[in-house]
Here is the input.
Amino acid sequence: NAVVHWFKMDLRIRDNTALHLASDKARQTGVPLIALAPIRVDFMLRTLKVLKEDLAKLDIPLWVETVEERKRVPARIVELMTEWGANHLFANMEYEIDELRREAKLVRMCAEKGISMDVLHDACVVPPGQLTTGTGKQYAVYSPWFRAWVRHVHTNPELLELFDPPERNPESARMQYAKLFSCEIPLAPESKRLSQEDAKKFDTLWPAGEHEAMKRLARFCDEDIGGYGKHRNIPSMPGTSNLSVHFASGTLSAKTAVRTARERNNTKKLDAGNEGIQTWISEVAWRDFYKHVLVHWPYVCMNKPFKPEYSNIEWSYDKEHFDAWTRGRTGYPMVDAAMRQLQGLGWMHNRCRMVVASFISKDLLLDWRMGERFFMENLIDGDFASNNGGWGFAASVGVDPQPYFRIFNPLLQSEKFDPDGEYIRKWVPELRGVKGKAIHDPYGRGAGVQAQKAGYPRPIVDHKGARERALAAYKKGIDSG
Ligand code: FAD
Here is the structure.
């Protein structure tokens, strides 16, 4: 009887909880593996190639199954398990409501066929459900949650113990699973296929697979983590780790990341020693925080604001405004640079994510869910929990949000975090010739003629007026809630 590990967003062999247990269980029998329905298709497919090679070295096959309809996934897995004579399915848990429902269904379907299924916590350092306030509730504010997270890891050091990669299959597995070894990694469906030029670009920008993740992590921890506290808010600097795509695809486990950072510190404490290391670990912990939020308040997965009293805000659905935002043509240089960075890299700096999300939901008063969706469709690191959390923060409708009356001024954000306009000049070529502080607000600071000649648009809204409009709309929505 064979054991199957179902890969989802955990595309690595190192420190993979369910894969490790599957391998432990299967020692005598071999582990055929499947991966299903990838999003962020290009990166995932490149990752699968690496995974397949790594597994083949252990005589473990990787079976890639393409399922047209998501809801067919459980039935197809049961069919494959039956075809392979497998009696035990392992998988790591995903916490979004649809995924949890799918897993519940699959456990039932497996049971009907006499197949066991184990679904395990793997994505977070501290699994959801382990941290509660003194009164037994889930924390809705990050800082006390983070203190509890740190305490919990200190008192349960095994949370940072890493699982070994799977054991090598016995030699007979090659013969036994010959058919599975012949499985090819498919091409992306035509609608999601990149042009050759883009495919090359993204391959260089975002090398795939867990070895690349480990290289990037080691380099960041050796070279940049010390300065992270100082540099992480400056979008023109390569001051952050750029590891989000690996966290989101599971080519890097959160435990491995935190442990590697901790090893560079002069203490085992997560809240002491080098400031850059502490700050970085606390950012990685945000990822855990937002996953815990999904589990405790699953309605945030259903297009609802975390704060129900924010359900009655009258959002705008102005298509021209939305298009200007997506194309980086709002007339606000920092916003436009950021949106063009997203188009160019499939990634955006965290400070800029906050600025553009605040701009669309407050200055344009567009429904934040339009922006949330656009991000998920365009980010290489799109992760439902972190994205939803980030949008909730910036639009003031989420857990532990920016208060609604504290509205970012995109011009001041630009002056503060891109003082010399380096980031703007990189991404907005029309403004490269603009000198000095006018770069932040060319039409308001005497560079309008130059900007216009270069084809840069005027601001699509006036920030002062837009701010007043947003304050009134939020207040009205809350009062009527
Ligand atoms: P680093 O600064 O090096 O941080 C290390 C890791 O910590 C990140 O890779 C990420 O896994 C985690 N992290 C850091 N900041 C946050 C945060 N605020 N929330 C949750 N996790 C965090 N992150 C995603 O991974 N996917 C998303 O879809 C996503 N959408 C976002 C949308 C908005 C509106 C906002 C404000 C933030 C969003 N973030 C998202 C969080 C953050 O912007 C990115 O994780 C970060 O920019 C990734 O770059 P990095 O790997 O260099 O981060």
User: Anything to note?
Assistant: Residues 1-121 form a domain with the Rossmann fold fold (CATH 3.40.50.620). The chain has a mean pLDDT of 93. The longest strand covers residues 86-92.
